[in-house]
Amino acid sequence: MIGIIIAILGGLIASASVIVAKKPNAKDLIDKLIPFQGWIGVILAIWGLWGIIGSVLNIGNLGLAWIIALAVAVVEFVVGFLLGYGLISKYLLEKNETAKEKGQVLRLKLTKYQIPAGLILIALGVLSLVFYMIG
Fold first, then answer.
1. Which of 24, 46, 63, 72 is the most buried (most CB within 10 A)?
2. Which residues, at least 6 apart from 121, have a Cβ–Cβ distance to it below 8 Å?
3. What's the CA gap between 81 and 12, in Å, rounded?
4. Residue 32: exposed, middle, or buried by beta-carbon count in 10 A (0-12, 13-18, 19+)?
């Protein structure tokens, strides 16, 4: 359940500009989350990586729930990387200039996907919540 909440929060932050444009009253909630964007991103990236590894290790359970879990994990990792890049760069890439430059290039390529990935993550989070409630 915590993973579902983290996914939905990450999706909200990643797609904040679209959500605020459509629902101006959501601005207050999103403004409260923005200061934690980096840490939520790092947690989301780690959670997503862990989910990808778990999905690969449990490929024997291949089915709809497995596919959704893998999709959530991949999108969590991408959104987490984008949201947490500032902290990742500061604490992990600061000492290695080559890694820092490669990370920045990757981030710039992925930035155009941040809003769509955030919206997809919200949808997958809600779908996961439905599966959680049913099963």
1. 72
2. 7, 8, 10, 11, 14, 72, 75, 76, 79
3. 15
4. exposed
d(CA 64, CA 80): 24
Tell me the mean pLDDT in the region 97-125: 84
Structure tokens at 85: 């890049």
pLDDT in tens, 48-101: 999 999 999 998 888 888 898 899 999 999 999 888 887 777 777 777 788 778
CA distances from 81 to 12, 19, 74, 128, 133 (A): 15, 20, 11, 21, 29
Q: Which residue has the tokens 């890049």?
A: 85
Q: Which amino acid would we find at residue 28? A: D
Q: What is the pLDDT of residue 48?
A: 93
Show the tokens assigned to 6. Answer: 């983290």
pLDDT in tens, 28-43: 777 777 777 888 888 8
76 closest CA partner among 57, 100, 55, 99: 55
Per the CB < 8 A criterion, the answer to whether 10 and 76 are in contact is: yes
